[in-house]
Specification:
By secondary structure, the chain is of the alpha/beta class. It folds into two domains: 273 residues, Carbon-nitrogen hydrolase (Nitrilase/N-carbamoyl-D-aminoacid amidohydrolase, 4-Layer Sandwich); 318 residues, Rossmann fold (3-Layer(aba) Sandwich), CATH 3.40.50.620. It contains 20 helices and 19 strands. The strands form three sheets. An eight-stranded mixed β-sheet has the order 6-7-5-4-3-2-1-14. A six-stranded mixed β-sheet has the order 8-9-10-11-12-13. It is elongated and about 90 Å long.
């Protein structure tokens, strides 16, 4: 550091999306490595503690608290090294979530700088999760230590007066008036940028010109850190483009590899050039007055609704059901009219979901003034079809005036299994999914023949759990039930039965409601359904409760568990609730890839999982920190 030289490092760490423990450990490893290499200023990428591509997981309290815990560990680790570190994380302040850069040295968090300019175009959706930090001037406490947070902070080294550091985050540099301009005018000799700009062809050249150009314009050093391997590749790719520039010169640069980029900055030479200029300003800062409260667990005395999707009041429930059925039908009506489709093709199994989809389709046809005979209702008996569900499907189709078509899939599936060498005696996932995909192929081909749309039947609860065959019942041309949870599907069908005024239809719908939920892909036992979904994945009333708390509010697993125990105290033991909560989280994370390519469908409630609307969640996110918390519950 003598004579104004300082070694800087830009780091691209290996990371796992949403696995804060893993990411924190990697950051600490690089802190040790860079210290051994003599680096005194080390910048890591934007949101590196969680990963940038967490999507709607940023709304989860568990992720935010885990990121905060890792920041404290990183700060404690910094006590062992003679350097200043810049790490990124999501951080909540006064009810708002900010994309923050934490500045760490000497065992403490010295301050935090929020991102000012949040991109919300093309592949970026940051305004969905974060608030702009423009003008923030705040103080809070971390483990009893005061921490300043704001956009008007400079980080000054007492032992090296030339070293004054300003912080900006990714898009801040791309904006017409970058924060770094103000920092330089206030005396900053070095700007660090914690970035997570994704890579596309030609973008690296532009990014390079921004970094080198800004370092020239501001007569400063500029350290730029960028993520690489580990971020979700669901829709974008990151190249690990790290740069260190000085006054227009690119001193060091690296792409397409995790690791460290080093360079020495000559701060005295920068200040020598600046002395010719007299336009540096000083910002005023406000100081907040803080107080503390002892954190204790609050006893909950109010009732917790076990069915948050379903209104308790009967009149309100009937009104809700009518409204949702109408919204579903309106969505389908528009899609049918827009595509000029002559028919709608739907697989009718005699189960709840296909029943609701057929009711919706019938209403949409009535709205369009189309004859219901252009609804092609297809039954496709397979190895697991029971007489009860088949008979209900046939009756339902007849009562609603749809066109009945039957295609027995057993022989075609046998031929398919023989062609791929699958043993029919093996009742494995291939045995089950082969039937589901055969049915989907039949529906798609009939739709092509009849100039129609295939209507999807899967519901929100199945999508949340991934309880669908990929490119089987997972796929359709318009998914009318996609935002309706299973507990509400039941009430929608029940309400229709109560109000339809058709005795035979009412009796048929009532029997559908009494039938166990099943994909019917395994042979029945003595004519009775052998494969009951809720025996395999757990009660849907529990999963719908979990889903609501997790997606509507972003509650942590511990809080969801606590609420569920209270809501279902008269029905389920705590161990039973915890067992299926673990299943929910495990499946919810593992099966996101199915939700990432869902067909269009109408949002009709407050919670949905469409990748184009409510849930932009990476398919590759780790469930580790959520499962870790679950393992500690009892």
């Amino acid at each position: 550091m003598r004579q104004g030289f300082i070694r800087a490092a830009a780091v691209t760490p290996e990371l796992k999306v949403a696995d804060t423990a893993y990411n924190g450990e990697k950051i600490r490893e690089y802190m040790k490595e860079t210290a051994a290499a003599g680096a005194k200023l080390v910048v890591f990428p934007e949101l590196c503690i969680t990963g940038y591509t967490c999507g709607d997981l940023f709304l989860q309290e568990r992720l935010l608290s885990a990121a905060r815990e890792e920041l404290l560990k990183i700060a404690a680790c910094s006590r062992s090294f003679d350097a200043v570190y810049f790490v990124g994380l999501p951080f909540a302040v006064d009810g708002k979530l900010y994309n923050m850069a934490a500045v760490v040295a000497g065992g403490k968090v010295l301050g935090m700088v929020p991102k000012t300019y949040l991109p919300n175009y093309s592949e970026f959706y940051e305004l969905r999760h974060f608030a702009s930090g423009a003008g923030m001037d705040y103080m809070f406490y971390l483990q009893g230590e005061p921490v300043l947070a704001g956009t008007g902070l400079l980080f000054v080294c007492d032992d090296m007066p030339e070293l004054k550091i300003g912080v900006e985050i990714c898009e801040d540099l791309w904006a017409p008036n970058p924060p770094s301009t103000g920092y330089a005018l206030s005396g900053a000799s070095v700007i660090v940028n914690l970035s997570a700009s994704n890579e596309v062809a030609g973008k690296a050249d532009y990014r390079r010109s921004l970094v080198s150009g800004q370092s020239a314009r501001l007569v400063c050093g500029y350290g730029y850190a960028f993520p690489g391997e580990g971020e979700s590749t669901q829709d974008v790719v990151f190249s690990g483009h790290d740069m260190i520039a000085e006054n227009g010169h690119m001193l060091a640069e690296k792409r397409f590899a995790c690791g460290v980029t080093y360079a020495e900055l000559d701060l005295q030479s920068l200040l020598a050039d600046r002395r010719r200029m007299n336009t540096f300003e000083v910002y005023d800062r406000l100081v907040n007055v803080n107080f503390r409260l002892t954190v204790t667990e609050t006893k909950l005395t109010g009732a917790v609704d076990p069915m948050p999707f379903v209104p308790k009041d009967r009149c309100a429930r009937r009104e809700r059901c009518e409204e949702m059925l109408t919204l579903q039908a309106l969505g389908l009506k528009k899609r049918m009219a827009h595509t000029n489709s002559k028919t709608a093709v739907i697989g009718v199994s005699g189960g709840l979901d296909s029943t609701l989809a057929l009711l919706v389709t019938a209403r949409a046809f009535d709205m369009l003034g189309k004859d219901r005979s252009d609804i092609i209702a297809v039954t496709m008996p397979g190895f697991g079809t029971t007489d009860r569900t088949y008979d209900n499907a046939v009756k339902l189709i007849g009562c609603l005036g749809a066109r009945f078509v039957e295609v027995d899939i057993k022989e075609s599936v046998r031929v398919h299994f023989a062609a791929i060498g699958h043993d029919m005696s093996s009742r494995d996932v291939t045995y089950e999914n082969g039937q589901a995909r055969e049915r989907t192929q039949i529906l798609m081909d009939i739709a092509n023949m009849q100039e129609g749309l295939v209507i999807g039947t899967g519901d929100l609860s199945e999508l949340a759990l991934g309880w669908a065959t990929y490119n089987g019942d997972h796929m359709s041309m318009y998914a009318v039930n996609a935002s309706v949870p299973k507990t509400l599907v039941r009430h929608l069908v029940e309400d229709y039965a109560d109000t339809c005024g058709d005795k035979e239809l009412c009796e048929t719908l009532s029997d559908v409601l009494d039938t166990p939920v099943s994909p019917e892909l395994l042979p029945p036992e003595e004519g009775v359904i052998a494969q009951k979904t809720e025996d395999l994945v757990g009660p849907y009333e529990l999963h719908d409760f979990f889903l609501y708390q997790v997606l509507r509010f972003g509650f942590s697993p511990a809080k969801v568990y606590r609420l569920a125990k209270l809501a279902f105290a008269d029905r389920y033991e705590s161990d039973f609730v915890l067992k299926w909560l673990k299943t929910f989280y495990r499946r919810f994370f593992a099966q996101q890839f199915k939700r990432s390519c869902l067909p269009d469908g109408p949002k009709v409630g407050t919670v949905a999982v469409s990748p184009r609307g409510d849930l932009r969640m990476p398919s590759d996110a780790s469930a580790g920190i959520w499962m870790q918390e679950l393992e500690q519950l009892q």
